[in-house]
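Hi R.,

As promised, here are both runs. First protein below:
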Amino acid sequence: MRLHPTLALCAVAWSSTQVWARDDPSRDQVQILTEKAQEYMAAKDYGAAYDSFQEALNVDPDNYMTYFYRAAAYLRERRTTAALVDLDQALKRKQDFEPALRQRAKLLNKRGAFKAARDDWETLEAMGGQVQETAQQGLDKVNQAERAYQQAQQARDDQKYAECVQFATAALKTASEMVNLYQLRGDCQRSARDIHQAVADYGRAIRLDPTQLDIQLQVAQLRFYVLNQQDEALAAVKECLRSDPEHKPCSKAFKRFKKIKKAVKEIETDASKKKFNTAAKKLTAFHQPAKTSDDGAPPQGLIQEVEEETVTLYRDWDLGDPQLGSAGTTNEATETLVVPELVADLYHKSCQYFAGFKKHQYGIEWCDKAL
């Protein structure tokens, strides 16, 4: 039977626990509780395992092995932060405890904590013996990842976005849980006009650190206006508000998204009942004869409101001029189009609805923009 990697790591350290009872009979209770916790781990009953580990620590708060085993349990649930805390506690009590030092170095590599990881690998290397080769390999990886991260940052500053993505991807092979690295690659993909991949990387950053509320808001706006993924956008701002119910930008975005989605639903309902005139008016503020508002400006329908918001979004997130009605914006360096899908969908609906009640002459503008 193959052991899970974290359980295998525990097995490596297990031999050091066998002296407990011989050296100090009072530690029998700690050993029993630790063994019980590992049985719970094997059964994937992590809550019970944590309770047993805590009982063991209550008996002996300075037992480094208990911290080490609980760190392994946290890793089974991918709770890296909690695992690092317990590994720190284990090493505080036994600085030369090689299994904990090696595991912490690997986790620091993943986190992109390059200096701290390098310190651990160098400590392991100085121990000599069988661990020396592993430590040298770890040092090589952390140095390569740090160099690639720095190259990605420089490429971003030089506006060489394809190179930035390439270097960031190389760094992520080692620093696979580095929030700043995913955000950097997302920024470069966004600047290269690859919005789908940018949103994917921002999403990875958020999963690693849900407190990144500004990124959550950015993802929500890109999903809503650029990708026309309304449900996903609403889910993103809801997550933001779960983290901080008082977050005003996310609250404002949530209310606005809901209002637009509701308006689109009502328009689609009108169209399904063949009330094309009503649907077109709500979308475009079309009136015959033409009307103006009190200040002399033409009235705004949903399209005009969303157009204004889209222009603001493109400016704020450095997506260029959306050139509404001309199939998006072209990046001179990449010749890639960024189509604001929400507005494009509303153009298409307007074209259909004017055709639906035989006002082709008024629908031409929207049909042209849809194309």
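And here is the second one, sequence first, then its structure tokens:
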Amino acid sequence: MYSENYLEVILTSVGWDFYSKVTYFIWALNLHLVPLILIMLNNWRSTLSSQEMGTASVVEMRRNFFDVGIAMGVILLFWMPNAATTYKPAEYIEQIQNANVSQSENPEENAQKFTAAQQNMGVTADEIPIPPGWFVIINSTKAAVNQLKEWLDFSKQASAMFAVMGSMKVDDPKVQDELNRFISSCYLPAMARYQNRGDIPVGELSQKDIRFVGNSVFLTTPGLYKACTQQNINDGMCLGDPLTMPVEYAEQSGIETTFTNSSAQDQNGRDLTSTSTPSCYQWWTANNDDDHYKSVIYEHPGLRDTTFDAVANDAMSMDDLGDKVDGLVWYASKNTADFLDWTESNFGVGDSSTAKDLTIQMAMRNGTHELIADPDEPNPVGIEEKTKQAIVDGANWVSDIAVFFSAIKWATIFSTILRALEPGLMMIQAGLIFGSLMFMAFTLPISGFSAGSVIKHAMFILGALMLPLIWHVASMMQEGLIRILYPDAYNLLDLDISLKSMLFMIFLFTLYFILPTVFMRMMSLSGYETAQATSEAISGLSNPGRSGGSFVAGKATGLVGSQTSKAAKGVGGAYTGFVNKYNPK
């Protein structure tokens, strides 16, 4: 994805469009030749004072070769737009729209935004030619920044998942061992595949779901927990072979892994055997609608339910979570039989197993309570109308348990502050890129198409392109600070106006404004110094004898001269001593 920022795409499109018009105008009038002519005139004047015209012409040719050659390279790579390297605003806007659709935003509203931008700012939907050098630098930097942001998100997701697993307090060592194996064999490999999914569209990972390990995206995406169908493979929508239970663990658990295929035989006529274990989908849910492991019905309990059974009673008995369903809290703290009897008598279900399944389904937040509460949907367990709301309340209460489990609950407390900052941050980045593009059309010709000028612009643009990564890191640091300052806060209403709050706001201002400003300043200074060193080095190569010379060449020559002088003195002294010793007067 090129960008998440509409404003950046729009302003960059306007900037490149203006840039192309200016450069084509200068090119059409052949004004770009003026700096080249001035370079050659300057070199001719510099060599005119030489008494040996032959030597002078050689020096002038060397200067022109370097100076004019570098300028021509700058023109072709970093100044003149090329039809083979284009900026594609329509494609980038579509990427943002598709990303927003996956986040349940209105695609029609997004399309209207770009249409309004086209009308009000003159943004073209056509591809805009840009110089190939900037095309490579900008796109490669964008790709690197996006990948780093994705890695940071995955590290945060994985950290949150491990924190959730740690907070569950699974006392049964057998369940804990199975959960650990599932994480290492299914969850983490699925993370890696999700990260490298390429062009296959996959939904967004939910960080508010109690099922961190069995994330619904992993359960439904072909080639993660679940096997791909032939149609998935034909459509190019398969991420690979399904992730499965380890053979060693399956055999320890009494799950059949070896199957005889009587329809296939080896060269000696013996039936071939194959090894297969349940997919992660079957392991987690115990459902048999996966195409991977169908030779034998998977009859073991799903790890999702097993894990919940091991932690639900302990979690539901915590009084500080609220009292939305007092009876549920009370009976959940008792033994399982009393708890199931209470659900049967209050919810009107037919048997205890159904009551248990219903409660687990509510707790895992899989949407069953929504079907029960919807009058247009069938009633799957025959519950009376008067008890439907009680179930919905119970499911909502269990959602609070999910908040309790979630290690990232504090990350959303100041989301309103971050959302208020985002438009301003996006405008800053878009304005920096836009301004640099506008000036580049003029400054490169004025500077004589020097490599130093290109480096200055490149460092500035790189700094602007890396700002989203800095702000992304800042948001993660913000979350960490929230956990430290407000460990017990659930929403903004719990916060008070205090010195702690003021310190937090100052820290936010530093993260989102002062640090990026210092970073941009450092990038600009680095570009300036690098450009100076490059110019001096090129100057020294083109004319080692020029007054002032190259910094690099001068330093090297001085070092060699100094060491040579010392060596000569040493040799001379040794020779004098030898002569005096063996040839006395």
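A quick note on the second one: The mean pLDDT is 67. Let me know what you think.

Best,
J.
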